[in-house]
Amino acid sequence: MDRDWMQQRLEAFADLITEYWRVRQVNGDTSGTKNRMYEAEPTVVKILRSIDPRIPDSGVLGETEWGGLAISETEVRRGLGILADMDEWKTRLAPDAPSLPADGFHPWVWDAAHTFWESDHYRAAVHAAATSINAHLQNKLGRRDLSDAKLVQEALSDKAPEPGKPRLRIPGDPKDPGVQTRQRGALQLGQGAYFALRNPAAHETGDLPEQEALEQLATFSTVARLIDQCQVVT
Q1: Cβ contacts of residue 40 below 8 Å, gap of 6+?
Q2: Which residues pair with 89 in a beta bridge?
Q3: How much is the pLDDT for 61?
Q4: What is residue 203's predicted lDDT score, i.e. its pLDDT?
Q5: For residue 135, what are the CA distances in angstroms to 145, 186, 218, 227?
Q6: What is the distance of C-alpha 51 from the center of its chain?
Q7: Is 176 helix (H, G, I), strand (E, B) or coil?
Q8: Closest Cα to residue 61, out of 77, 78, 42, 79?
Q9: Number of alpha carbons in the 13 Å side-chain half-sphere of residue 153
Q10: How far apart are CA 47 and CA 144, in angstroms?
Q11: What distance in Å separates the CA atoms of residue 143 and residue 127, rounded to the nearest whole number?
Q12: How many CA atoms lie within 13 A of 29 on its CB side?
């Protein structure tokens, strides 16, 4: 809805009402004002009905028992009040929702991303977080020959370690089905984050919306915590 236009039309109609009563009070000719009011009324009624469907669609102008003009100014004023406060209702009356403080993300993520975030470079913040995790994972495994999704695949593979290829293992009994499920999930989540989030952040142009970028940082924070918790097996 074009709220500015709606408000302007209602305010113009309210001014006509004021003009009508002023002219009538001094026994002047109100015919010109009434004509402009009748011309504006259909749009005013459409606006009021779009704001509040409970408002009658019979119009805001009518006739009194003795043939005078009856004006439902209350509905116009109510419509102006609704338009003025709509945005505040959305903010003030919205249900409480959990917040996600970015400085609570895993340090590998937020320490790398926050400088870009504070300057509103959201795609760069996501890319920096992914690069930071990759660097920490390389350090943890002592490997420099692989990076990003391929490194995650090798690190979290359920294959046994090989010379020069240490693995990461989720804490717990490796025979436990729950631990095995988490191991597979960590692998898939890590690879998915790099394929679906890091690669676009590195190669696509244009910035990300703030909310979308925050969600992506949260995903990488989860990946970082899983990697940080894992044990290195050689």
Answers
A1: 9, 12, 13, 16
A2: none
A3: 87
A4: 87
A5: 12, 18, 18, 12
A6: 24
A7: coil
A8: 42
A9: 9
A10: 65
A11: 21
A12: 3
Q: How many CA atoms lie within 13 A of 51 on its CB side?
A: 27
| Residue 208 DSSP code | P
User: Are the beta carbons of 61 and 37 closer than 8 angstroms?
Assistant: yes
Alpha carbon distances (Å) from 92 to 86, 87, 166: 10, 9, 53
69 phi and psi angles, rounded to 5 deg: -85, 125
**3 state SS of 63:** strand
pLDDT in tens, 205-234: 889 999 999 999 999 999 999 999 999 999
pTM for the model stands at 0.63
Instruction: Write the pLDDT tens digit of every residue in 146-201.
Output: 999 999 999 999 999 999 999 999 999 999 999 999 999 999 999 999 999 999 98
- Counting Cα atoms < 13 Å in the Cβ hemisphere of 134 gives 19
- The Cβ of residue 3 has, within 10 Å, a number of other Cβ atoms equal to 14
Say which residue the tokens 């690069």 belong to. 131
3-state secondary structure of 179: helix
Residue tagged 């920490």 (tokens): 136
Encoded tokens for 151 = 């490194």
- Would you call 168 helix, strand, or coil by DSSP? strand
Residues 186, 182: Cα–Cα separation, whole Å: 6
